[in-house]
Amino acid sequence: MSTTDLTHPRRRRLSQAAALGAAATLVLSACGGGADADSADNDADGDTEAPESLSVTTFNEFGYEELFEDYEEQTGIRIEHNKVDTAENARDSLRNSLGAGSGASDIEAVELDWLVEFMQYSDRFEDLADPELEDRWLDWKYDDAVDEEGRQIGYGTDIGPQALCYRADLFEEAGLPTDRDDVAELLEGEWENYFDAGRDFVASSDSAWYSGSDNIWQGMINQVEVPFETEDGEIIADTNSEVQGLYDQLLQASVEDELSAGLSQWSGDWNDAFQRDGFATMLCPGWMLGVIEGNADGVDGWDVADAFPGGGGNWGGSYLTVPTQGENVDAAKELAAWLTAPEQQIRAFEAIGAFPSTVEALESEEIQSASEEFFNDAPVGEILANRAEAIEVQPFKGPNYLVINVAIQDALNRVDVDGIDDPETSWDKFVNDVEAMK
Amino acid sequence: MASRKHLRSRASAWDRKYSPYLYISPFFLLFAVVGLFPLVYTVWVAAHDWDLIMGQGEFVGFDNFAHVVGQRAFWIALRNTLSIFILSTGPQVVAAIIIAYMLDSHLRARTFWRMGVLLPYVVTPVAVALIFSNFFSQRFGLVNSVLDTIGIDAIGWQSEVLPSHLAIASMVNFRWTGYNALIFLAAMQAVPRDLYEQAEIDGAGKVRQFLSVTVPMLRPTIIFVVITSTIGGLQIFDEPRLYDQYGRGGTDGQWQTMTIYLYELGWTRSDFGLASAVAVLLFLLIVAIGIINFTITRRIATGDGRKKTASRRRFAKGVRS
């Protein structure tokens, strides 16, 4: 926004050095605002100098550390990397920056589950559409980031096709097959089939079948075509019998049949349980591989099966956006395009397992032949590519998707983790929460 | 000439009349900008539909207040805030006075101990919250492991209401007790030593001296500490927010305080109107409880207090006459 800064690099440097830099920039940008309504226009009428630095905000793991170093070497642009712990916190702070009109990074990573919310304010983001890049991504990945006026507000980073991760050693102790093809055969089918295998497992093991209901829920809800909101903007989460059916089925398996370890995802206990044989299976989008490897450091036996209950499913995956309020939108666009290019996506996959969303990277030799030593040398590239193909449903996610999904996960955890409610009372509270949103 | 003189005298009259206001104006200007304006503006926002990103919407009067007060979550947040506040402020003030009293006596390596009590305050609240929430992890946390070895069943630190409040109050107490102790210590050192000597001559033991000399003499400081910890305690945010991985105050709002509820409304749900309504209600609550606490603490050792003011008045009269 502060176009004045861009054309006067020295002033920029000075104001940066000053203790009141932020305030000064604000004043300057306020002065410059009248002259040029949009900084992008301003940049177009001449060669702009490359900025000294760009800021990028990501959350969890994106696998960008090495890429940033390379980019700095290539271009001389310093990259300030803000790494937020959870996606929810990243979302809250981006909302705050958009509301305040300042404070956002030049590039902000946005997760699929809340991209829709920001679509409501798509004019606060730069249109990244570029004819040369149009065919770069999988169709649905591309379409999700295009608003009603046809502006593309995000470049796709990764996708989350889900496979099943399992502990071969615990399977063996319980008398289940251990070979990944046999396991895939065992677990392929409906959710009830997966739960049945779990019932056999817990009957002869001290470990639980999965970590907690909220992990399994992400797999189930991402297969529902219209889960919480209709395209007309009506909230149907509390009256959708399909959702309630899944809720009941899951809690039956988790609590009644004791398949769940009763751990809420990302909690300290959940992290610890990886080291304690807490559970035997986990839903595994590509990015989860890195999480498991980190938490289960030193634990042998993890493997990946090319199967997923209830058909395929996508969990998460992100986009890089460029908020309009940034000072260096053009340079930021360039960096975002570079980071999401097939070659860089492959390197992010090699770093942390973020599964590429570009067609070229998906077909590449590097992905097709990639294997993961920690997961017993499983051919994760091939498995996840198969899993991506198995995805049939792209659920419709409205602007309240995240908030509603959080409320229903709370409902599950009240029963499964905290044990303070039975499924009915907890559902009633969920209905109550949803009512309050309407 | 005459008129210039006139002007000068007028200027000096103005100077005498108005410049004092000028001298004190920085405080009031600052207060107006960072205190009064946000306060009034919050009320303004609370009376509108207001989206975090889209900004001001329609004027809705008291609708936001009515909506908030009708929510179960609001009353749970109110309960949690009061409960955590009582569990933290009460023990904290008492412990701080006792610690200060011990530090006030002749200790070896006095500075070391005095610095020592301040140490928890230096640790950032985020670090404190992370460490404590690890302690209180339900399944594999330290506290429950220790309880387990001595044969006590695991306590639902992160699922039940009262245990979670106790855990959070312990974080607050850990952080603030030492700080308050130092404030009390400073006040105690201002207590004239001859009062203690006199009490000792009269045959008062240490406990009696503490209760009848130290505590009454600390009254203004106690009021100060109670008021500040009332404000801090009712606005408690960091500790409950960092108590679990989500920071929403539990699956059932077990430890969702008013500020967390406010944050959820404003930032997660993007509804600044509702969030501001909660902020205004919280402000009124703090004022109300502040007044209650003020009147209670004023009564600490009132008997003494009144006598003293009476005798002081008499003394003052004596001097004047």
UniProtKB/TrEMBL annotation, chain B:
Residues 78-293 form the ABC transmembrane type-1 domain. The chain crosses the membrane at residues 21-44, 82-103, 115-136, 176-196, 217-237, 272-296. GO terms for biological process: transmembrane transport. PROSITE patterns: ABC_TM1. It is found in: Cell membrane. The keyword Zinc-finger does not apply. GO terms for cellular component: plasma membrane. It is a multi-pass membrane protein. The keyword Metal-binding does not apply. It comes from the Bacteria. It holds the Pfam family BPD_transp_1. Keywords: Cell membrane, Membrane, Transmembrane, Transmembrane helix, Transport. Belongs to the binding-protein-dependent transport system permease family. This is Sugar ABC transporter permease. It comes from Nesterenkonia natronophila. The lineage of its organism: Bacteria, Bacillati, Actinomycetota, Actinomycetes, Micrococcales.
